[in-house]
Every structure is written in C-alpha cells, then in structure tokens.
Amino acid sequence: MKNTTKLCSTKPIVTVNGKFPGPTLVAREDDTVLVKVVNHVDYNVTIHWHGVRQLRTGWADGPAYITQCPIQPGQTYLYNFTLTGQRGTLLYHAHILWLRATLHGAIVILPKRGVPYPFPKPHQEVVIVLAEWWKSDVEAVINEAQQSGLAPNVSDAHTINGYPGPVSSCPSEGGYTLPVEPGKTYMLRVINAALNEDLFFKIAGHNFTVVEVDASYTKPFKTDTVLIAPGQTTNLLLTANLGTGKFMVAASPFEDAPVAVDNITATGTLHYSGTLDDKATIVTIPPAQNATPLVDSFTDALRSLNSKEYPARVPLKIDHSLFFTIGLGINPCATCVNGNRVVAYINNVTFDMPSISILEAHFFNIKGVYTDDFPRNPPNKYNYTGTQPTNVQTMNGTRVYRLRYNSTVQLVLQDTAMLAPESHPVHLHGFNFFTVGSGLGNYNAKKDPKKFNLVDPVERNTISVPTGGWTAIRFRADNPGVWFMHCHLEVHTTWGLKMAFLVDNGKGPNESVLPPPSDLPKC
Ligand code: C2O
C-alpha cells in the first residue's frame, strides 16, 4: 500500500512497486516474460496481462477463480508467458475485486529486432495511461454498492499518466506534460485503464493518425479525437507541426445514455520546447458526453492493416454460431435497499464465481465447479432494444461454453434495453477476434450477415457493443484452456456480465494446455 495524494486528499492505494500508473513492461515479440509478483498488501491479488494470448499458458492469464486462485497476502507467484507473434501496446492490471483502479500499467511489445513498423519510425514513443480516481477507498465504494444493491459512486476525476489536472474540487491539482520538439513525429501508446468509463482523447490544435489498436496494426487514418473503451489501447502518430506554444491534452468521458454525472475532463499540456512556461495554453473543448455520432464514425473507420506481412485471417467457415444478449437486470435481495439488487447477465445468466479456478477444475477433472451448458441463444426472445420485458430477473450459474480445438466461432453480442441500454466494452481473454459487423437495433440473422466485412475487419481483444445495438465477432478457438469473457466496465463484471469459453485440447503434440507451474496459488 502506498499513501498517495490526489484531488487534495490522501489515501493508501495498491500499486506495483509503489507507482501509479505502474511501471511499463517493455519486451519484444516472441520474448518470454517472467514477472514475480510478491503480495505485500492485505488483499488477495492476481494480475492479468490484458491482450496477451497466453497460448497454452492459461495459468499465467490472471483472472481470479477463472485461471488461478488468488495470490494471498505474503505469497508469491511467478507469471511466465511468451509473447508469441504479438507486438504493440497492451496493458496489465489486477484481475480481482476493484484493485485494477490503481494496480495497472502499460505493456509495450516491440517488433522483432530488425523488423520495422509498417509506418515511418517515430522520433520518440510515449506511453499515455488514462484512468479514474476516487477520493474514497475503491473497495469500500464497491462493497457499499453490493450491500445496498444500488450502483456504486462514480469516480471523482479521470487521470492522464496519474495526473487529473486542475478540477473544481481541487484547483491546485497538477496536470501531465507532454514535451515535444517542433517538426518531430511521436507515437503515443494510449491505454484506457479506467474502471468504468469510455474516454475521448484529444489534443488542442493537433490531429492524430491511428496506426494500431489492441496490438494489431490498422489502416492508418486521421482524426482529431479518439475514443478508447476500458481495456482498449490505441497507437497514434502525432506530428508536432505547430512550431511553438502550449496545447491542452484532454481525456473526457463518453456515455451514450448518462446514468450518473461523471463528466470531469482530465487535462494536461503538450509543450513545445522553447515555449515559455507562462504562455497561455490553447484549450480544446472536449466532445459532448453523449457524442454518439462521433464515436460511430471513429469506430467505423477502424480497419485492420491486412497487408502481406500482416494479413487479416478472418474465419470464413463457421462451426459455432452464437447469439448472446447482454444487459442489466434485477434479482431479489432481502437486505438490499429496494428489496432487490442490480445484476448483469449474458443470455440471462448472471455468472457466479466458483471457489476454485475453472482451469484447475478442467485440467484436474474436478467435478462440481462449473457446468458446460452455457446457452448459445437467449432463453427467451423479445424485442431486445424496444421496451424492456416484464420479467427482468436473471438466473445464476457458473456455466461455460465448450469449443472444440481449432473450431471457428461467430458470436453476435446484442445489447438489450433491460433496465437501461448501455454500451458494453466486451473483452475476450486468450484470443484476438475480428469485428465483422455491427449495427443499431436488433440483429437480423438473415439480412445483417450479408453486410459483414470479411476482408479487413479490425482485429482486437475488446469491443464496444453499441448502446441499443449489436456487434458480430469471429475468432478461431486455437488456444486450449479456459478463457474469460466479460464487460470491461468493472461494475458490470461485478454484477455478473461475464462467462467463460472452455476450449478442449486438440490431438496434436502442441495442442494441449501445459501443466500448471508448481507455485500456482491454492485457494
Ligand atoms: Cu482486462 Cu478480464 O480483463
């Protein structure tokens, strides 16, 4: 724990090596990474390497009770994994409780030695981690919410590399400074590590060229605003072409249907070398909190690079066609304020965490931990994006969906209007997937697939399902193990918007889950 002062108040936070955000992990494609985690805090801890494929090494993936039991206070665990065929920006974060609020950092995977970027080499690379800050203890915030059955308090500020910048509750708060030299091009590796907020990122007077998302190269395109959902990363080229001056850097929330007011903008400064400190900063107005058209056009512009070196291997023949509804519901709770609690679901299943990890139960054939009957379609049909159904209750279960090794999956994620339509950044562990289509309203299984992009759809690990709409993704189940899938808004994960895929071992010599390391924590 480390005492940290922000927004004019001090609290102890959980960190990696005393830093917020944590230290950047720098490696190269195909490197093997060893991270020894020693738990010096009073909480159980796990760390997830978000977007690292973990081919056959699910034991190092990190989600508590899915692939490992937590590292208890005083214990140690060595995460050991290889960055096979991956390069780009990812992030690591705690994957238990709400510890990732402060326990997170960047993963920078450089291309193999001698392999250039598919764009001109930038003068310098800069990691930019966006996050959220609560004045109160974050675990207390979610515990209170769980007891009342209501939504947790929203954060008090957003941060850019740990700095909120001046806000009305603390005008003396400092902001992040990005020093640049005139004429040079920078690559910003921007990460959204926030718990519960999609964030816009902007710099006054400057444009960006998007070149990569979620550690997959994209066709370059120009924009003055980017939208990054929690768990997503975006690499931007920024040319410092204004010569001199100071320009505002801004990170502000996007909420399509704002349920709570959380519209505080984190601000920093892009500072040209040679510019006097007292020169006024050119400001930028952040997009409206509900600037949905802007988000839609940004999302639509994303395409995978699909070059000879980096082809988009979109599965064309589909073995498993799945349709999952996602949203919020209500379950009875005698001790809660309204006699019920807010929950969340996939196909009406609110996921219950097991008491040992599903991967261990699968590997050692331990019965009674999970069932493999996760529904491939919603249990009841209704107009998902119309008026909400009369029954908004969900069922509970620790259910997984089973996939044969190397089978192909098409998964349509349909947002629902149950309680409130909301956009959900859904993250899949263990795979990258292709976003082949998306739209508003209800998915139409006859018409919509005709419009799918099977040529150069963007490849990523976290995708925002639009508010009152749907997204279709495809992936190949070429990674045996147990792979969590959940909404990356931490409040929705807590409420149960999560499930797991179980990919069976293949028959080949390199097609099964490797044995667990001897220091795998016990529950
Ligand atoms: Cu970045 Cu399962 O999370």
From TrEMBL:
It comes from the Eukaryota. This is Uncharacterized protein. The lineage of its organism: Eukaryota, Viridiplantae, Streptophyta, Embryophyta, Tracheophyta.
